[in-house]
Specification:
12% helix, mainly beta, eleven-stranded antiparallel beta sheet, Porin, 13 strands, 260 residues, 3 helices, two-stranded antiparallel sheet
């Protein structure tokens, strides 16, 4: 099932039972989970309000092949900002929670743009991410590593970068689709581990530029992440995501738990 179909059905209030090929271990891929909640949050938001920030907490495994409910609540709505809260409930328990901030753009004399896309190897010179150790959902993702540090290769380099897109291009770009791509990367601290170990995301914070929903769905998007710390089984990393023309789309911060 293509991600477009899942998100389109959510837009009209139908909760599609997610198939096993979107799984990540014993749960549905976190990027798809977040994209689904975000799609539900957008349904009654005025078109002129733009998503600028979102926070996600993954509280329990969200299982493929089992029905679920999505609950949407408006926490606050003013002239500029509308705040939505979304929960996925399955078998009576909350599986994930999202808070999204939709903002009306304001006239301003100030514009700051300090981001400069890193000079990394192009997709055609990067290492395709393939193999039987990848999670099941990766059958939908086309990604390649441009960094020398590989996941689970006992590297001393605490960063990872490369390129990503969907194997089957969506009909058009959107922020929920972008969210799904961003979370396809493993926790950056994985480069320091010598063998595959279980990892999961506890919380995820994303900030978006004004035109983050505008990108060519056939293009690879750039990704660069740095792990700030990993101690006591908890790691934190920050990532930047950009279009091929160097335009920043989003900044991502994740807190991960690592069993190993």
């Amino acid at each position: 099932m293509h991600i477009d179909h899942i998100l389109q059905e959510i837009s009209v209030g139908t909760n599609v039972v997610v198939p096993e090929n979107w799984a990540q271990g014993r749960t549905i891929f976190g990027g798809l989970t977040a994209a689904m909640m975000l799609q539900a949050a957008r349904v009654e938001v005025e078109p002129e309000r733009v998503l600028r920030a979102m926070d996600v907490n993954f509280t329990r495994p969200f299982n493929a092949g089992i029905p679920y409910q999505i609950e949407v609540e408006t926490l606050g709505e003013g002239k500029t900002v509308c705040v939505k809260n979304v929960r996925i409930i399955q078998e009576g328990k909350i599986r994930a929670n999202l808070r999204a901030d939709f903002c009306r753009p304001l006239a301003s004399e100030v514009r700051i743009d300090t981001f400069s896309a890193p000079n990394i190897r192009p997709p055609e010179e990067s290492l395709p991410m393939t193999g039987d150790r990848l999670p099941t959902f990766f059958c939908h993702i086309d990604a390649c590593l441009a960094s020398n540090a590989l996941p689970f290769a006992a590297s001393e380099d605490a960063q990872m970068h490369g390129w990503m897109r969907y194997k089957e291009p969506p009909e058009k770009s959107s922020i929920p689709l972008l969210v799904g791509l961003i979370d396809s990367w493993p926790p950056t601290a994985a480069t320091h581990y010598s063998r595959p170990v279980p990892m999961s995301t506890i919380s995820w914070h994303l900030h978006f530029t004004l035109d983050a929903d505008i990108f060519d769905v056939n293009d690879y998007l750039g990704y660069h992440s740095v792990a700030e710390f990993d101690e006591g089984g908890i790691s934190s990393s920050s990532a930047y995501i950009w279009r091929p023309d160097g335009r920043l789309l989003a900044k991502s911060v994740q807190t991960n738990i690592i069993y190993g």
